[in-house]
Inverse folding.
Protein backbone atom coordinates (compact mmCIF):
# COMPACT_ATOMS: atom_id res chain seq x y z
CA UNK A 1 0.00 0.00 0.00
CA UNK A 2 2.82 2.43 0.91
CA UNK A 3 4.50 1.83 -2.45
CA UNK A 4 1.20 2.43 -4.25
CA UNK A 5 0.79 5.74 -2.40
CA UNK A 6 4.32 6.75 -3.41
CA UNK A 7 3.65 5.87 -7.04
CA UNK A 8 0.40 7.84 -6.97
CA UNK A 9 2.30 10.84 -5.63
CA UNK A 10 4.95 10.47 -8.35
CA UNK A 11 2.26 10.22 -11.03
CA UNK A 12 0.60 13.37 -9.66
CA UNK A 13 3.91 15.26 -9.82
CA UNK A 14 4.59 14.09 -13.39
CA UNK A 15 1.05 15.13 -14.40
CA UNK A 16 1.47 18.56 -12.83
CA UNK A 17 4.87 19.02 -14.48
CA UNK A 18 3.36 18.50 -17.92
CA UNK A 19 0.06 20.29 -17.28
CA UNK A 20 1.74 23.48 -16.08
CA UNK A 21 4.66 23.63 -18.53
CA UNK A 22 7.54 22.39 -16.40
CA UNK A 23 8.64 19.18 -18.17
CA UNK A 24 7.52 17.41 -21.36
CA UNK A 25 8.45 14.07 -22.88
CA UNK A 26 11.22 14.56 -25.43
CA UNK A 27 10.08 14.42 -29.10
CA UNK A 28 6.53 13.79 -27.88
CA UNK A 29 4.88 14.95 -31.11
CA UNK A 30 6.66 12.04 -32.88
CA UNK A 31 5.89 9.46 -30.21
CA UNK A 32 8.71 10.40 -27.86
CA UNK A 33 12.26 9.15 -27.32
CA UNK A 34 12.82 7.11 -24.18
CA UNK A 35 15.10 8.68 -21.59
CA UNK A 36 14.87 12.23 -22.95
CA UNK A 37 12.94 15.18 -21.54
CA UNK A 38 12.22 18.73 -22.67
CA UNK A 39 11.81 21.65 -20.27
CA UNK A 40 8.97 24.10 -20.76
CA UNK A 41 8.96 27.80 -19.79
CA UNK A 42 8.54 27.15 -16.06
CA UNK A 43 10.79 24.09 -15.94
CA UNK A 44 13.74 25.80 -17.60
CA UNK A 45 13.41 28.73 -15.18
CA UNK A 46 13.33 26.46 -12.12
CA UNK A 47 16.26 24.49 -13.48
CA UNK A 48 18.34 27.61 -14.08
CA UNK A 49 17.53 28.94 -10.62
CA UNK A 50 18.83 25.73 -9.06
CA UNK A 51 21.99 25.92 -11.15
CA UNK A 52 22.50 29.61 -10.39
CA UNK A 53 22.03 28.97 -6.68
CA UNK A 54 24.64 26.20 -6.82
CA UNK A 55 27.09 28.40 -8.73
CA UNK A 56 26.64 31.26 -6.28
CA UNK A 57 27.00 28.95 -3.28
CA UNK A 58 30.05 26.96 -4.38
CA UNK A 59 31.85 29.32 -6.78
CA UNK A 60 30.97 33.01 -6.55
CA UNK A 61 30.87 33.18 -2.75
CA UNK A 62 34.30 31.53 -2.36
CA UNK A 63 37.84 32.66 -3.07
CA UNK A 64 39.18 29.17 -3.80
CA UNK A 65 36.94 28.16 -6.73
CA UNK A 66 37.39 28.70 -10.47
CA UNK A 67 34.84 27.98 -13.18
CA UNK A 68 35.49 26.15 -16.45
CA UNK A 69 33.30 25.05 -19.35
CA UNK A 70 34.95 22.24 -21.30
CA UNK A 71 33.88 20.84 -24.66
CA UNK A 72 31.41 17.97 -24.78
CA UNK A 73 33.45 16.20 -27.48
CA UNK A 74 37.01 15.39 -26.40
CA UNK A 75 39.98 13.42 -27.67
CA UNK A 76 39.30 9.69 -27.24
CA UNK A 77 42.48 9.43 -25.14
CA UNK A 78 40.64 11.26 -22.36
CA UNK A 79 38.25 8.33 -21.96
CA UNK A 80 40.91 5.71 -22.46
CA UNK A 81 43.10 7.21 -19.74
CA UNK A 82 40.18 7.66 -17.33
CA UNK A 83 39.14 4.02 -17.69
CA UNK A 84 35.73 4.79 -19.17
CA UNK A 85 36.37 2.82 -22.37
CA UNK A 86 37.13 -0.34 -20.41
CA UNK A 87 35.14 0.00 -17.18
CA UNK A 88 32.15 2.31 -17.76
CA UNK A 89 29.78 -0.61 -18.14
CA UNK A 90 26.51 -1.92 -16.75
CA UNK A 91 25.29 -5.53 -16.63
CA UNK A 92 22.63 -6.12 -19.28
CA UNK A 93 20.22 -9.04 -19.62
CA UNK A 94 17.70 -9.68 -22.38
CA UNK A 95 14.16 -10.98 -22.66
CA UNK A 96 14.73 -14.12 -24.72
CA UNK A 97 11.37 -13.81 -26.50
CA UNK A 98 10.95 -10.14 -27.48
CA UNK A 99 14.63 -9.19 -26.98
CA UNK A 100 13.94 -6.17 -24.78
CA UNK A 101 16.99 -5.33 -22.70
CA UNK A 102 17.19 -4.47 -19.02
CA UNK A 103 19.80 -3.64 -16.44
CA UNK A 104 20.29 -6.79 -14.42
CA UNK A 105 20.57 -4.94 -11.09
CA UNK A 106 17.28 -3.14 -11.83
CA UNK A 107 15.56 -6.48 -12.52
CA UNK A 108 16.73 -7.73 -9.13
CA UNK A 109 15.67 -4.55 -7.32
CA UNK A 110 12.22 -4.71 -8.91
CA UNK A 111 11.90 -8.23 -7.53
CA UNK A 112 12.90 -7.38 -3.97
CA UNK A 113 16.58 -8.38 -4.17
CA UNK A 114 19.38 -5.96 -3.20
CA UNK A 115 22.13 -6.38 -5.84
CA UNK A 116 24.69 -4.15 -4.11
CA UNK A 117 28.08 -5.86 -3.94
CA UNK A 118 27.10 -8.67 -6.33
CA UNK A 119 29.18 -9.60 -9.33
CA UNK A 120 27.44 -10.06 -12.67
CA UNK A 121 27.70 -13.83 -12.26
CA UNK A 122 26.15 -13.67 -8.79
CA UNK A 123 23.26 -11.59 -10.12
CA UNK A 124 22.62 -14.15 -12.87
CA UNK A 125 22.71 -16.95 -10.28
CA UNK A 126 20.17 -15.09 -8.11
CA UNK A 127 17.84 -14.62 -11.09
CA UNK A 128 18.03 -18.35 -11.83
CA UNK A 129 17.59 -19.35 -8.18
CA UNK A 130 14.47 -17.24 -7.72
CA UNK A 131 13.07 -17.94 -11.19
CA UNK A 132 12.86 -14.22 -11.99
CA UNK A 133 11.35 -13.39 -15.36
CA UNK A 134 11.40 -10.25 -17.50
CA UNK A 135 8.70 -7.61 -16.91
CA UNK A 136 6.85 -9.25 -19.83
CA UNK A 137 6.95 -12.64 -18.09
CA UNK A 138 9.58 -14.26 -20.34
CA UNK A 139 12.89 -15.98 -19.47
CA UNK A 140 15.99 -13.79 -19.21
CA UNK A 141 19.35 -14.36 -20.88
CA UNK A 142 22.65 -14.41 -19.04
CA UNK A 143 24.07 -10.94 -18.48
CA UNK A 144 26.79 -9.25 -20.46
CA UNK A 145 28.56 -5.95 -20.09
CA UNK A 146 27.34 -2.88 -21.94
CA UNK A 147 29.35 0.33 -22.33
CA UNK A 148 27.08 3.31 -21.70
CA UNK A 149 29.03 5.92 -23.66
CA UNK A 150 27.51 7.27 -26.88
CA UNK A 151 30.11 6.66 -29.58
CA UNK A 152 30.49 8.96 -32.56
CA UNK A 153 33.05 10.03 -35.16
CA UNK A 154 34.66 13.43 -35.61
CA UNK A 155 35.38 14.68 -39.11
CA UNK A 156 34.80 13.14 -42.53
CA UNK A 157 36.55 9.80 -41.92
CA UNK A 158 35.05 6.86 -40.04
CA UNK A 159 37.92 4.90 -38.56
CA UNK A 160 39.35 4.23 -35.11
CA UNK A 161 41.32 7.48 -35.14
CA UNK A 162 38.15 9.55 -35.63
CA UNK A 163 36.28 7.97 -32.72
CA UNK A 164 34.99 10.26 -29.99
CA UNK A 165 32.26 10.04 -27.37
CA UNK A 166 29.56 12.25 -25.96
CA UNK A 167 30.97 12.83 -22.50
CA UNK A 168 29.36 10.63 -19.81
CA UNK A 169 30.45 13.06 -17.08
CA UNK A 170 31.76 16.61 -16.81
CA UNK A 171 34.64 15.70 -14.47
CA UNK A 172 37.21 14.78 -17.13
CA UNK A 173 36.84 18.17 -18.78
CA UNK A 174 37.88 19.68 -15.47
CA UNK A 175 40.91 17.41 -15.05
CA UNK A 176 42.18 18.09 -18.58
CA UNK A 177 42.15 21.82 -17.77
CA UNK A 178 43.90 21.52 -14.39
CA UNK A 179 47.32 22.46 -15.77
CA UNK A 180 45.91 25.38 -17.80
CA UNK A 181 44.37 27.00 -14.74
CA UNK A 182 47.47 26.41 -12.59
CA UNK A 183 49.71 27.99 -15.22
CA UNK A 184 47.37 30.97 -15.79
CA UNK A 185 46.16 31.79 -12.27
CA UNK A 186 48.78 30.30 -9.86
CA UNK A 187 46.15 29.26 -7.28
CA UNK A 188 47.18 28.25 -3.78
CA UNK A 189 46.22 24.79 -2.59
CA UNK A 190 43.56 23.85 -1.77
CA UNK A 191 41.49 25.11 -4.70
CA UNK A 192 38.67 23.83 -6.84
CA UNK A 193 37.51 23.84 -10.44
CA UNK A 194 33.75 23.81 -11.01
CA UNK A 195 31.71 23.03 -14.10
CA UNK A 196 28.06 22.74 -15.05
CA UNK A 197 26.98 21.10 -18.26
CA UNK A 198 25.43 18.29 -20.25
CA UNK A 199 26.42 14.65 -19.93
CA UNK A 200 25.15 11.62 -21.85
CA UNK A 201 24.76 7.97 -20.90
CA UNK A 202 23.15 5.31 -23.04
CA UNK A 203 21.11 3.93 -20.16
CA UNK A 204 19.75 0.46 -20.82
CA UNK A 205 16.52 1.18 -18.97
CA UNK A 206 15.89 4.87 -18.22
CA UNK A 207 13.19 5.17 -15.59
CA UNK A 208 11.43 7.14 -12.88
CA UNK A 209 10.71 10.34 -14.79
CA UNK A 210 13.84 12.56 -14.92
CA UNK A 211 15.67 10.57 -12.22
CA UNK A 212 17.50 8.34 -14.70
CA UNK A 213 17.74 9.59 -18.27
CA UNK A 214 20.08 9.44 -21.23
CA UNK A 215 20.76 13.18 -21.41
CA UNK A 216 21.18 15.19 -18.23
CA UNK A 217 23.13 18.01 -16.61
CA UNK A 218 25.75 17.83 -13.92
CA UNK A 219 27.21 20.31 -11.46
CA UNK A 220 30.64 19.06 -10.40
CA UNK A 221 33.64 20.28 -8.44
CA UNK A 222 37.13 18.84 -8.44
CA UNK A 223 38.80 20.19 -5.32
CA UNK A 224 42.58 19.79 -5.38
CA UNK A 225 44.31 19.23 -2.04
CA UNK A 226 47.58 18.19 -0.46
CA UNK A 227 47.59 14.38 -0.09
CA UNK A 228 47.89 14.72 3.70
CA UNK A 229 44.94 17.12 4.04
CA UNK A 230 42.14 15.46 2.09
CA UNK A 231 40.03 14.55 5.13
CA UNK A 232 39.48 18.12 6.33
CA UNK A 233 38.60 19.22 2.79
CA UNK A 234 36.20 16.29 2.46
CA UNK A 235 34.41 17.19 5.70
CA UNK A 236 34.19 20.89 4.78
CA UNK A 237 32.68 20.20 1.36
CA UNK A 238 30.26 17.66 2.83
CA UNK A 239 29.03 20.27 5.31
CA UNK A 240 28.67 22.84 2.50
CA UNK A 241 26.67 20.30 0.51
CA UNK A 242 24.15 19.95 3.34
CA UNK A 243 23.87 23.75 3.54
CA UNK A 244 23.16 23.92 -0.19
CA UNK A 245 20.53 21.17 -0.03
CA UNK A 246 18.83 23.05 2.79
CA UNK A 247 18.71 26.15 0.57
CA UNK A 248 16.75 24.07 -1.98
CA UNK A 249 14.01 23.68 0.62
CA UNK A 250 14.72 20.00 1.27
CA UNK A 251 14.00 18.87 4.81
CA UNK A 252 16.85 17.39 6.84
CA UNK A 253 14.66 14.44 7.79
CA UNK A 254 14.40 13.40 4.12
CA UNK A 255 18.18 13.49 3.55
CA UNK A 256 20.43 10.57 4.50
CA UNK A 257 24.16 9.92 4.31
CA UNK A 258 25.42 6.55 3.09
CA UNK A 259 29.08 5.77 3.68
CA UNK A 260 29.59 3.57 0.64
CA UNK A 261 31.45 0.33 1.48
CA UNK A 262 34.66 -0.42 -0.38
CA UNK A 263 33.19 -3.14 -2.61
CA UNK A 264 30.50 -0.76 -3.89
CA UNK A 265 32.71 2.29 -4.52
CA UNK A 266 34.02 3.34 -7.90
CA UNK A 267 37.45 1.88 -8.61
CA UNK A 268 39.15 5.27 -8.17
CA UNK A 269 37.52 6.15 -4.83
CA UNK A 270 39.04 5.68 -1.39
CA UNK A 271 35.99 7.18 0.34
CA UNK A 272 32.52 8.02 -0.95
CA UNK A 273 29.48 9.46 0.79
CA UNK A 274 26.22 9.18 -1.14
CA UNK A 275 23.54 11.67 -0.16
CA UNK A 276 20.20 9.91 -0.48
CA UNK A 277 16.79 11.54 -0.56
CA UNK A 278 13.31 10.24 0.20
CA UNK A 279 11.77 10.56 -3.26
CA UNK A 280 8.24 9.33 -3.95
CA UNK A 281 9.94 6.39 -5.74
CA UNK A 282 11.83 5.55 -2.52
CA UNK A 283 15.16 6.44 -0.94
CA UNK A 284 17.55 7.04 -3.85
CA UNK A 285 20.87 8.77 -4.49
CA UNK A 286 20.59 12.54 -4.87
CA UNK A 287 24.32 13.32 -5.16
CA UNK A 288 27.69 12.04 -4.01
CA UNK A 289 31.04 13.23 -2.73
CA UNK A 290 34.13 11.13 -3.38
CA UNK A 291 37.84 11.15 -2.52
CA UNK A 292 39.42 10.29 -5.89
CA UNK A 293 43.09 10.41 -4.70
CA UNK A 294 45.46 11.32 -7.58
CA UNK A 295 43.87 8.74 -9.87
CA UNK A 296 42.78 11.14 -12.63
CA UNK A 297 45.73 13.51 -12.75
CA UNK A 298 48.09 10.53 -12.44
CA UNK A 299 46.47 8.89 -15.47
CA UNK A 300 46.70 12.09 -17.49
CA UNK A 301 50.40 12.44 -16.64
CA UNK A 302 51.04 8.81 -17.57
CA UNK A 303 49.18 8.86 -20.90
CA UNK A 304 49.93 12.41 -22.08
CA UNK A 305 53.51 12.57 -20.89
CA UNK A 306 52.90 16.04 -19.40
CA UNK A 307 53.61 16.70 -15.74
CA UNK A 308 50.57 17.24 -13.53
CA UNK A 309 52.69 17.99 -10.46
CA UNK A 310 52.00 21.02 -8.31
CA UNK A 311 54.85 22.92 -6.64
CA UNK A 312 54.21 24.52 -3.25
CA UNK A 313 55.22 28.17 -3.52
CA UNK A 314 58.50 29.01 -1.81
CA UNK A 315 59.47 25.33 -1.46
CA UNK A 316 60.72 22.48 -3.60
CA UNK A 317 57.85 20.21 -2.58
CA UNK A 318 56.25 18.72 -5.68
CA UNK A 319 53.39 16.23 -5.88
CA UNK A 320 50.31 15.34 -7.86
CA UNK A 321 47.37 16.85 -5.95
CA UNK A 322 44.64 14.61 -4.60
CA UNK A 323 41.00 15.37 -5.33
CA UNK A 324 37.67 15.65 -3.52
CA UNK A 325 34.70 15.53 -5.89
CA UNK A 326 31.20 16.71 -4.95
CA UNK A 327 28.98 15.67 -7.88
CA UNK A 328 25.39 16.84 -8.31
CA UNK A 329 22.80 15.88 -10.91
CA UNK A 330 20.64 18.87 -11.83
CA UNK A 331 17.61 16.74 -12.73
CA UNK A 332 17.78 14.77 -9.49
CA UNK A 333 17.96 18.02 -7.53
CA UNK A 334 15.01 19.40 -9.50
CA UNK A 335 12.99 16.22 -8.93
CA UNK A 336 13.73 16.46 -5.21
CA UNK A 337 12.60 20.12 -5.17
CA UNK A 338 9.35 19.28 -6.95
CA UNK A 339 8.74 16.28 -4.67
CA UNK A 340 9.41 18.32 -1.55
CA UNK A 341 7.20 21.21 -2.69
CA UNK A 342 4.18 19.19 -3.87
CA UNK A 343 1.17 19.69 -1.59
CA UNK A 344 -2.50 18.77 -1.52
CA UNK A 345 -5.03 20.35 0.84
CA UNK A 346 -8.65 21.51 0.89
CA UNK A 347 -9.96 25.04 0.42
CA UNK A 348 -13.67 25.78 0.75
CA UNK A 349 -14.44 22.09 0.47
CA UNK A 350 -12.44 21.62 -2.74
CA UNK A 351 -9.15 19.80 -3.25
CA UNK A 352 -6.26 22.16 -3.93
CA UNK A 353 -2.84 21.27 -5.38
CA UNK A 354 0.05 23.66 -4.95
CA UNK A 355 3.85 23.79 -5.05
CA UNK A 356 5.29 25.24 -1.86
CA UNK A 357 8.51 26.27 -3.61
CA UNK A 358 11.01 28.47 -1.77
CA UNK A 359 10.46 32.02 -2.98
CA UNK A 360 13.98 32.33 -4.39
CA UNK A 361 13.39 29.24 -6.60
CA UNK A 362 9.81 29.91 -7.74
CA UNK A 363 9.70 30.35 -11.54
CA UNK A 364 7.07 33.06 -11.04
CA UNK A 365 7.41 35.28 -7.97
CA UNK A 366 4.34 37.48 -8.51
CA UNK A 367 1.24 37.03 -10.66
CA UNK A 368 -0.55 40.32 -11.39
CA UNK A 369 -4.24 40.40 -12.34
CA UNK A 370 -6.97 42.95 -12.92
CA UNK A 371 -10.09 41.82 -11.06
CA UNK A 372 -12.03 42.11 -14.34
CA UNK A 373 -10.23 42.05 -17.69
CA UNK A 374 -13.05 43.84 -19.51
CA UNK A 375 -12.63 47.03 -17.45
CA UNK A 376 -9.98 49.18 -19.18
CA UNK A 377 -9.31 51.27 -16.07
CA UNK A 378 -8.49 48.14 -14.02
CA UNK A 379 -6.34 46.71 -16.80
CA UNK A 380 -4.40 49.98 -17.12
CA UNK A 381 -3.73 50.14 -13.38
CA UNK A 382 -2.78 46.46 -13.27
CA UNK A 383 -0.32 47.02 -16.13
CA UNK A 384 1.35 49.78 -14.11
CA UNK A 385 1.76 47.43 -11.14
CA UNK A 386 2.97 44.62 -13.42
CA UNK A 387 5.62 46.87 -15.00
CA UNK A 388 6.76 48.05 -11.57
CA UNK A 389 7.24 44.50 -10.27
CA UNK A 390 8.69 43.23 -13.54
CA UNK A 391 11.49 45.81 -13.42
CA UNK A 392 12.32 44.91 -9.83
CA UNK A 393 11.96 41.11 -9.80
CA UNK A 394 11.93 39.95 -13.42
CA UNK A 395 10.00 36.72 -12.93
CA UNK A 396 6.51 38.23 -12.83
CA UNK A 397 3.50 36.89 -14.75
CA UNK A 398 0.46 38.68 -16.16
CA UNK A 399 -2.66 36.56 -15.62
CA UNK A 400 -6.16 37.66 -16.64
CA UNK A 401 -7.44 34.31 -17.91
CA UNK A 402 -10.64 33.05 -16.24
CA UNK A 403 -12.21 34.18 -12.98
CA UNK A 404 -10.09 35.07 -9.98
CA UNK A 405 -10.59 31.66 -8.36
CA UNK A 406 -9.25 29.84 -11.41
CA UNK A 407 -6.29 32.18 -11.53
CA UNK A 408 -5.45 31.39 -7.91
CA UNK A 409 -5.61 27.64 -8.56
CA UNK A 410 -3.41 27.96 -11.63
CA UNK A 411 -0.80 30.05 -9.81
CA UNK A 412 -0.87 27.65 -6.84
CA UNK A 413 0.07 24.77 -9.14
CA UNK A 414 2.82 26.88 -10.71
CA UNK A 415 4.14 27.61 -7.23
CA UNK A 416 3.73 31.40 -7.38
CA UNK A 417 4.17 32.74 -3.81
CA UNK A 418 2.11 35.94 -4.29
CA UNK A 419 -0.91 36.88 -6.39
CA UNK A 420 -1.52 40.63 -6.73
CA UNK A 421 -5.05 41.72 -7.68
CA UNK A 422 -6.05 45.22 -8.75
CA UNK A 423 -9.71 46.08 -8.03
CA UNK A 424 -11.86 49.22 -8.01
CA UNK A 425 -10.53 50.26 -4.58
CA UNK A 426 -7.07 50.31 -6.12
CA UNK A 427 -8.15 53.19 -8.34
CA UNK A 428 -9.10 55.20 -5.26
CA UNK A 429 -6.39 54.44 -2.69
CA UNK A 430 -3.48 52.94 -4.72
CA UNK A 431 -3.64 49.70 -2.76
CA UNK A 432 -3.83 46.10 -4.00
CA UNK A 433 -4.82 42.72 -2.62
CA UNK A 434 -1.96 40.28 -2.09
CA UNK A 435 -2.90 36.65 -1.68
CA UNK A 436 -0.41 34.21 -0.09
CA UNK A 437 0.03 30.85 -1.80
CA UNK A 438 0.66 28.70 1.26
CA UNK A 439 -1.95 30.14 3.65
CA UNK A 440 -4.40 31.55 1.02
CA UNK A 441 -4.68 34.62 3.28
CA UNK A 442 -5.30 37.99 1.61
CA UNK A 443 -4.25 41.45 2.74
CA UNK A 444 -4.27 44.98 1.41
CA UNK A 445 -0.95 46.63 0.65
CA UNK A 446 -0.22 50.01 -0.90
CA UNK A 447 1.44 49.89 -4.31
CA UNK A 448 4.37 51.92 -3.02
CA UNK A 449 5.12 49.14 -0.49
CA UNK A 450 5.17 46.34 -3.04
Amino acid sequence: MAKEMKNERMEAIVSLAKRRGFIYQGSEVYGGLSGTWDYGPLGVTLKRKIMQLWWQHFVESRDDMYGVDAAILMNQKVWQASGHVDTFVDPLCEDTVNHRRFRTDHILKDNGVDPDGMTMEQMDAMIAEKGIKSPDGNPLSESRTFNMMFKTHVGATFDEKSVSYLRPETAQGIFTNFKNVVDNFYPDLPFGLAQQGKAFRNEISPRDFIFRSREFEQMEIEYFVHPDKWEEAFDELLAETHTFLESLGLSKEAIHELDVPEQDRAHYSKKTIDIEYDYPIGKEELMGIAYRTDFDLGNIQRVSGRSMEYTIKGTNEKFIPHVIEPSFGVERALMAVLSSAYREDEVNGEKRIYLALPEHLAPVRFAVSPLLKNKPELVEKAREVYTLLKKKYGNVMWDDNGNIGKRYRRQDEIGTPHCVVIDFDSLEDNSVTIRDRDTTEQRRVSISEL
Notes: The CA atoms of residues 250 and 340 lie 6 Å apart. The chain has a mean pLDDT of 92.
